[in-house]
Specification:
602 residues; alpha+beta; five-stranded antiparallel sheet; 25 helices; 10 strands
C-alpha cells in the first residue's frame, strides 16, 4: 500500500464513519472529505471543484426542476386521481399505490413522487379505518423500486452512467430491462405478501378524531368587563401572559361572529370570546396571569350554548382558514427549533396546534417542543397561503388530498415539454444533460414554474454531496486504491462464478447504501467494481448495473434513503421495523436482478 492509498483510505474511512454517525449533514461531511483530499494533494487544485460542473450533477438538478414543473402542471395529480376509487381492500390499495408511485418515480424524483402520494395513502388508510403504517412503508419502497427503471429515475443511475467505458453513456431506457423486472417483482411481492409484514402502529379506530383529538383541548375564554386587556391587542395579551403560557388562540368570537386565526394585532373588546387550545395546566397558568374568565361551560350552560360551542369547534377548518396535518421533512428549517423561538404565528401566519411523534400526540408544552424530522404538526392557517407556507418551511401536508389539478392547457404543456426532452435523449439528438436542462428552462419560460421556484425545487444538499464526492471517488481510482480493494475482493472470492461476483457487488453496495447516502455509495463502489471486472475479465456494464441496483435499493433502515425517513413518523415506525419487509424484498431484488443483468449485460 502506497502513502497516497493510505491517505485516501483514511479519508474514506472517516467519511463513512461520519455518514453512519449521522450527526453532521451528509453534504457537510462530503465537503470535509473534499477538503481533506485537497489539503493532502491527492487531487490537483484545478480539478478540485470540477464536480460542480460534472454532467451528472447538472442532470440531477435539471431532473428536479422538471419534476416540479410536472407537479405544478397537474400531471402527477391526474395520474393519482383514480386512487380514491379503488376501494378499501388492503391488497388493492397497496398494489395501486405502489404501482403508481413506482411509475412516477421512473420519471420524476422519487422523493417528490412519494410526497405527492403520501397524503393519499394517509387518507385512504383513515377512510378504511386502518393505520397508515400499513400503506406508507410499501409506498416508500415502491418509490425506490421505480427509480431503478430509467436513467433519470434516481441519482445513482445518473452517476453510474458517467462511469461507463467507451464513447457512449447509458441511454435513458438502458436501465429498464433490469429495473422494470425488479420493480414488477417487488411491487407484486409487496402487494401480495409484503404488506402483511409491516407493523400495525397508530390508531385503527377510524373515528373522526384521528390522530389529534382537538376538541378535547378547546376552551372558550372571555374578556371580562373592566379587563385591562380590553382595548389592547391580542399580541399584548399573549406577551403579558408570562413565559409559562402554552395557549394557542384559534378564533375570536364577537357578537356571534367568528374570526379564525385572528391577527395578533387585533384589538380586543369587553365580552370577546377567545377559542383557545391548551392543556389544563397551561390554561390555569394563563388564566392566573391574564385575569380572563372561562366562557359559558359550567353546569348552567344551556343546550343551545353547548350546541353552538360544538359547532364552532367543527368550523375551525372551514372557510378561508383551515386545520391540516403536515409532516416535517429532514430538510425543514423547523428541525431542531422550537415554536416559541421561530415565532411562526406572527412571521408566517401559522398556528401550531399540536405535535405528534411516533404516532402519539406529545403532551409536553408546545412552545418547548424541539421539532424533529418526521414530526406531524396540526397547524391552522389561511387556506390560500397555507400550502405555500408549509412548503417554504419544508413540511408536507398530510390531510385528505384535494387533488389540485392543473388546467388542461398546463397539463398538456408540461407533458409536451417532458416528452420532447425524452424523445431528444432517446433519438440521440441531444445528450441527456443538454435535453433535460433545455426542458427545465422551457418549464420556467412557459411559467409552469417560476425562477425562484426552480431554485427551491433543487435539493442543494444532494448537489453539493455529488459535486464533492465525485473528486473523492476519482482519487480512489487514480491512486490505485480501487484496484487494491478489488484485488483483495478477488482473493476472497477466488474461483467464483460471474453470478456470485455480481451478488457480492450488489449486496455489498446495498448494505452500504443502507447506512450512507445512495449517491455516495454509488460513487464509492463504482471504481472498485470496475477494477474488479477488469481483473476478472467481466463486462464492465454488468458490474455497473449491479452497483446501480444495490445503491438504489436501501430497504433495511430508515436512514438509507429520504423516502424511508419521510414515512417513519407518520407511519409510527421504529428503526428496527424496516428489515421485516426490507430483508425479504432485498433478497428478492438480488434474486431477480442478477440473472437479468447476466442476460442483458453479461
Amino acid at each position: 500500500m502506497t502513502t497516497e492509498q493510505g491517505i485516501v483510505f483514511a479519508v474514506l474511512g472517516a467519511t463513512l464513519a461520519l455518514f453512519i454517525w449521522n450527526r453532521l449533514r451528509f453534504d457537510v461531511v462530503a465537503m470535509l472529505a473534499l477538503l481533506a483530499i485537497a489539503i493532502t494533494g491527492l487531487v490537483p487544485t484545478d480539478e478540485l471543484f470540477a464536480g460542480f460542473g460534472h454532467p451528472a450533477v447538472v442532470t440531477v438538478a435539471a431532473v428536479l426542476v422538471i419534476s416540479q414543473g410536472l407537479v405544478n402542471g397537474g400531471v402527477v395529480d391526474n395520474i393519482a386521481r383514480f386512487l380514491g376509487k379503488v376501494g378499501h381492500r388492503p391488497t388493492i390499495q397497496v398494489l395501486t399505490l405502489t404501482a403508481v408511485v413506482a411509475l412516477c418515480s421512473g420519471f420524476i424524483n422519487n422523493v417528490g413522487a412519494l410526497a405527492l402520494l403520501m397524503p393519499v395513502a394517509v387518507w385512504m388508510s383513515r377512510e378504511a379505518g386502518r393505520s397508515p403504517s400499513l400503506l406508507l412503508m410499501p409506498l416508500a419502497f415502491g418509490s425506490l423500486l421505480g427509480g431503478t427503471m430509467t436513467l433519470i429515475g434516481t441519482p445513482p443511475n445518473i452517476i453510474i452512467a458517467s462511469y461507463r467505458e467507451g464513447s457512449e453513456a447509458f441511454g435513458l431506457f438502458d436501465f429498464a430491462p433490469v429495473g422494470a423486472a425488479i420493480t414488477f417483482a417487488g411491487v407484486a411481492f409487496i402487494a401480495l405478501v409484503g404488506w402483511r409484514l409491516t407493523p400495525r402502529r397508530g390508531d385503527e379506530s377510524g373515528d373522526d378524531d384521528k390522530l389529534f383529538s382537538v376538541g378535547d383541548y378547546l376552551t372558550e375564554l372571555k374578556i371580562p368587563e373592566g379587563s385591562p386587556h380590553a382595548g389592547a391587542t391580542l399580541h399584548n395579551l399573549l406577551a403579558e401572559s408570562g413565559e409559562d403560557r402554552d395557549v394557542v388562540v384559534l378564533a375570536l368570537i364577537r357578537d356571534d361572529k367568528r374570526q379564525l386565526a385572528p391577527s395578533t394585532y387585533k384589538v380586543l373588546q369587553e365580552n370577546d370570546l377567545l377559542l383557545v387550545e391548551s392543556d389544563t395546566e397551561s390554561l390555569q397558568a394563563f388564566l392566573d396571569n391574564t385575569g380572563l374568565e372561562l366562557g359559558s361551560q359550567d353546569d348552567s350552560e344551556s343546550e343551545e350554548d353547548k350546541t353552538a360551542r360544538k359547532s364552532r369547534k367543527k368550523e375551525l377548518n372551514e372557510g378561508e382558514v383551515q386545520l391540516t396535518e403536515a409532516v416535517i421533512t429532514p430538510e425543514s428549517s423547523l428541525v431542531g427549533q422550537t415554536a416559541n423561538r421561530l415565532n411562526l404565528r406572527e412571521r408566517n401566519g401559522l398556528n401550531i396546534v399540536a405535535v405528534a411523534r411516533q404516532g402519539h400526540r406529545l403532551k409536553r408544552r408546545l412552545g418547548d417542543i424541539r421539532f424533529n424530522a418526521g414530526d406531524i404538526l396540526l397547524v391552522q392557517g389561511f387556506e390560500d397561503t397555507l400550502t405555500g407556507t408549509l412548503s417554504n418551511l419544508g413540511c408536507l401536508p398530510l390531510a385528505e388530498r384535494g387533488l389540485r389539478l392543473g388546467s388542461s392547457r398546463k397539463t398538456l404543456l408540461a407533458s409536451g415539454i417532458f416528452i420532447i426532452s425524452i424523445v431528444a435523449i432517446v433519438s440521440g439528438w441531444l445528450s441527456a444533460p443538454v435535453a433535460l436542462v433545455s426542458g427545465a428552462v422551457a418549464m420556467v419560460l412557459t411559467k409552469l414554474i417560476d425562477a425562484p421556484g426552480a431554485y427551491r425545487a433543487i435539493d442543494w444538499s444532494v448537489i453539493v454531496l455529488l459535486a464533492a464526492m465525485i473528486p473523492v471517488g476519482q482519487a480512489l481510482e487514480t491512486t490505485g486504491g480501487a484496484e487494491l480493494i478489488a484485488g483483495q475482493m478477488l482473493a476472497i472470492g477466488d474461483g467464483l462464478a460471474p453470478s456470485a461476483v455480481l451478488v457480492m457487488v450488489l449486496v455489498g453496495t446495498m448494505l452500504l447504501s443502507n447506512v450512507v447516502n445512495n449517491a455516495a455509495a454509488a460513487i464509492l463502489v463504482a471504481p472498485i467494481a470496475l477494477s474488479l471486472s477488469a481483473e476478472l475479465g467481466m463486462a464492465s456494464d454488468a458490474v455497473l448495473m449491479a452497483v446501480a441496483v444495490g445503491a438504489s435499493c436501501a430497504f433495511l433502515t430508515p436512514i438509507g434513503h429520504q423516502s424511508n425517513a419521510l414515512v417513519m413518523e407518520p407511519g409510527g415506525y421504529q428503526f428496527g421495523d424496516y428489515w421485516r419487509l426490507g430483508l425479504p424484498l432485498s433478497i428478492l431484488v438480488t434474486a431477480v436482478a442478477v440473472p437479468m443483468i447476466l442476460l442483458v449485460w453479461g
